[in-house]
Design a protein that fits this description.
Elements: H1 8-17, H2 22-29, H3 33-40, H4 48-58, H5 68-81
Length: 82
């Protein structure tokens, strides 16, 4: 089953709470600012690679980015890559 995580509002909140511009966060994550904008507007899902980069770059718990189903998927992903 292909499960996608759309967490644009939570991504934007994370970025703004850290006082970052889209350009600065995109640079930190190794993506373009335009791609980050699409993620923040739920036009693109969070990829596993982007989720892991978020967790390591900003020291956040992946479960904080999603709802219940997304939290379970994030936990499974983290366990698989541990």
């Amino acid at each position: 089953m292909d499960r996608k995580i759309f967490a644009g509002a939570r991504m934007r909140h994370l970025r703004e709470s850290r006082g970052l511009t889209q350009s600065a966060m995109a640079r930190d994550l190794g993506v373009s600012a335009s791609y980050l904008n699409l993620v923040e507007h739920n036009q693109r899902p969070l990829t596993a690679q982007l989720l892991l980069k978020l967790a390591t770059t900003y020291a956040i718990d992946l479960r904080d980015l999603g709802g219940e189903n997304e939290a379970r998927l994030a936990s499974e992903l983290a366990e698989a890559l541990a």
